[in-house]
Amino acid sequence: MRSSLDPTTRAAHLHADGLSVAFGDRPVFADLDVIVAPGRRLGLIGENGAGKSTLLAVLAGIDPPGARVLGRIARPARTGLLHQEPPFPADAVAGEVLEAAVGEVRDLERELDAAAAALGDEPGDARAAAAAAERYAAALDAAERVDVWSIERRRDELLDGLGIGRVDRARRVGELSGGQRSRFALAALLLSSPEALLLDEPTNHLDDAAADHLEQALRAWRGPVVFASHDREFLDRVATGLLDLDPGQVRAADAAAGPSSPRDREPGAVSREAQLAASVGTAFGGSFSEYLAVRESDRDRWRRRHDAEQSELRRLRGAVAEGARDVAHGRAPTDRDKFIAHFKGENVATAVARRVRDARARWSELERTQVAAPPAPLEFAGIPPGAHAPSVDAGPVLEVSDLAVEGRLCVPALRVSANARLLVTGANGAGKSTLLDVLAGRLAADRGTVRRRRGVRVALLEQDVRFADPEVTPRAAYERTLGERRAQRVPLSGLGLISPRDLDRPVGRLSVGQQRRLALALVVAAPPHVFLLDEPTNHLSLALAGELEDALGTFPGAVVVASHDRWLRRRWAGDEIALVASGHRASGHRASGR
């Protein structure tokens, strides 16, 4: 539902003015101002559920179901949106998807040919000649903007750059892997040459070479670009500015600025209550690494200001209580009172009463203006206790010999010890997800053996989370999976993965990142002996991705992670194996676990 959204205007830039979005009584962001000029690239960051995907959809002109949208939007006439989940039907043919993406480019090419033909005809009069010339000039300008003459070359270069140049374009979308579908969706969008780009997690499923190719393409893009990403390295390399949609960061900046902050003095500023519920956005013009330092500094000053105010409130309460006793009526004067009164008379009581009044006034003012306590971050609380890892001395918990999945994977040997920390790397299509599926028992190998130690439980956090019932709530799904008794012992709210306000919302209304948080909660609440994670940082906020990585260091069992994440790989302290498309080879680390 859309209401009070002024008609969208056309412009060379992207501009949202006073944009507010709410779902029922749940505001997402309020009074948000965004402007992105041609050639600039704005990175959206914030916790899962902060509204990044919602903002991209609204900027693209898509009405989020059930949303109330207020504000004004200006954008280029041809604005393209990359969804986190590719919108193509399973029976669509990959090549036809690409051809449909360049349909408008083909139309411009045909119009240029028709305009050129009309220009070459014998004009009946000067007016017709002028009209033909004007038509040709407009068609030529449009064709030059999208470079219609190089579309086949650009298509092939783009597919090769994204690592899908060798994928049979006659295959149906449903036959492609999740990573291939995402890359075809990205290629289709870039080939359509929109004037403005809106990208939702564009580096998901991209290996190093593909991510580098996308970075180069975006840095050369002439129109405005807005993208949401969890990839810190990508943000650092591509973004020319950042917008943090985390409501807590707005309050941190206000609190850090002090009580005389300009925000407090602006007419029509968003109320404290609105800030507590929704984001008004925090803009930053530097790199992501610089922003992290600024954000932490703001939050540190917020904490120190809150602590100082609470200390002052305690002092004032004590002063008022002490002063009230000094001027209390109805008790007999002490010898000390009589002695002081003999020298100073009634002025003492008057001075004490004045100090009490001043303290009460200061107390009242500070209670009215004090900053709220910094909110506890929505963080991964760690692996719950209760799981006991198998003995390390009893041999591997998983062992693979001469493993092969036709056309997808070949692993001569692999041993996973009870306390292994194993990173699986490799380009897209090398078989990382296939290996995890085989280890989890979800996919049968065509050749070879997979031996599991008796009694060993294996759990997999998949790349693409799907809940069969979109109407089930996180709380209900959690209790259904774990059982009522276990769910009570290890409550979902205590894991820090799902916000309290989302516990009873249908999972179908949660963001992709929030659904993945729930899937993660279902695993860590009942820890397995072997935890397999397929691209664990995909769709998770940057803060949670780091917390998950730290928590895995204390996991009471074996951990096997498949990831293309450059930041995670640089920090990995365990063993590593690298897969290649034609098979498997171990990296410089041992491949048998620590």
TrEMBL record:
InterPro entries: AAA+_ATPase, ABC_transporter-like_ATP-bd, ABC_transporter-like_CS, ABCF, P-loop_NTPase. One of its GO terms (molecular function) is ATP binding. Residues 14-272, 392-594 form the ABC transporter domain. Keywords: ATP-binding, Nucleotide-binding, Repeat. The keyword Nucleotide-binding applies. The keyword Ubl conjugation does not apply. CDD domains: ABCF_EF-3. Pfam families: ABC_tran. SMART domains: AAA (SM00382). It comes from the Bacteria. Gene3D superfamilies: P-loop containing nucleotide triphosphate hydrolases (3.40.50.300). This is ABC transporter ATP-binding protein. It comes from Agromyces marinus.
